[in-house]
């Protein structure tokens, strides 16, 4: 006889069997800074982070990659993803969200530099610095990197509420590292007698401004070919201004290195594509401080 108890049990079992298993939250990132910060924030959180493009693929080539040989891989990732972490407020041509959305209309955009809904303040923009593009690299200051971590974390905890305690603990640890880095670098730079610097790159304005270094301009654009005359001009500028430090985002040619040495300055090449953005920023700061404080 089918009793009320049996009916209740049958309904309960049916409910258990029909209850879907909640899938883990999955997010995509494709740039070194967005992937690196997200990886630090999501450590041990249970949220799955997927790299949408090869780690060594420059941002400028990602649109072509997603449109050709990486199209199927992005489609597969986007179909299962809940969100993408990009930088469209800084780099309007960032292709990740628009192209991922073609495969998943429900995918959420997380802008690492400025919240899409304006719920938090975004990064601090330097007056006169062109922001629209990856080359501006505003995350090369501890303050802006910390703000980006805040922005990413705020959206991640809304996407994955169960992971909130771990994400917030990771955020606190990351912010503590940045605070210590800022305090230590400020104290050590205060001991330097000469803070003059020449940048051979268009990507280091935020780094120079964030450390309050004294910039000396040179009559040469980053992508221009160095001529014997421009090399001589560089050496003379370094000598005349007693420039302590020359910065670049890539290793310059032997001829440029020779001109820098003849000018009496020290060359430091800045990294920005490491797996741990905080560790890399610390390494950049330490290299600059070491060069400025050497006898």
From TrEMBL:
<dbReference type="GO" id="GO:0030001">
    <property type="term" value="P:metal ion transport"/>
</dbReference>
<dbReference type="Pfam" id="PF01297">
    <property type="entry name" value="ZnuA"/>
</dbReference>
<dbReference type="GO" id="GO:0046872">
    <property type="term" value="F:metal ion binding"/>
</dbReference>
<feature type="signal peptide">
    <location>
        <begin position="1"/>
        <end position="23"/>
    </location>
</feature>
<dbReference type="InterPro" id="IPR006127">
    <property type="entry name" value="ZnuA-like"/>
</dbReference>
<protein>
    <submittedName>
        <fullName>Periplasmic solute binding protein</fullName>
    </submittedName>
</protein>
<dbReference type="InterPro" id="IPR050492">
    <property type="entry name" value="Bact_metal-bind_prot9"/>
</dbReference>
<keyword id="KW-0732">Signal</keyword>
């Amino acid at each position: 006889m089918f009793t009320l108890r049996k009916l209740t049990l049958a309904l309960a079992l049916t409910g258990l069997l029909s209850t879907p298993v909640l899938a883990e939250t999955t997010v995509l990132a494709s740039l070194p800074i967005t992937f690196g910060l997200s990886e630090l924030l999501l450590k041990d959180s249970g949220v799955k982070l997927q790299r949408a493009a090869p780690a060594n693929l420059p941002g400028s080539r990602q649109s072509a990659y997603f449109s050709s040989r990486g199209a199927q891989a992005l489609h597969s990732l986007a179909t299962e993803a809940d969100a993408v972490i990009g930088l469209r407020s800084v780099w309007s041509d960032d292709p990740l969200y628009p192209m991922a959305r073609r495969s998943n209309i429900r995918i959420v955009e997380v802008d690492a530099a400025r919240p899409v809904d304006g719920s938090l303040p975004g990064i601090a923009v330097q007056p006169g610095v062109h922001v629209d593009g990856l080359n501006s690299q505003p995350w090369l200051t501890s303050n802006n990197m910390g703000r980006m971590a805040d922005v990413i974390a705020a959206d991640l905890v809304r996407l994955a509420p169960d992971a909130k305690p771990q994400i917030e603990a990771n955020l606190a640890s990351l912010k503590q590292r940045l605070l210590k880095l800022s305090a230590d670098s400020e104290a050590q730079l205060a001991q330097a007698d000469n803070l003059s610097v020449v940048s051979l790159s268009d990507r280091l304005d935020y780094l120079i401004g964030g450390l309050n270094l004294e910039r000396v301009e040179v009559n040469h654009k980053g992508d221009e070919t160095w001529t014997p005359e421009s090399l001589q001009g560089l050496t003379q500028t370094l000598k005349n201004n007693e420039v302590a430090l020359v910065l670049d985002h890539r290793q310059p040619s032997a001829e440029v290195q020779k001109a820098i040495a003849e000018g009496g300055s020290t060359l430091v090449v800045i990294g920005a594509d490491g797996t741990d953005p905080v560790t890399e920023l610390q390494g950049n700061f330490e290299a600059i401080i070491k060069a400025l404080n050497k006898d």
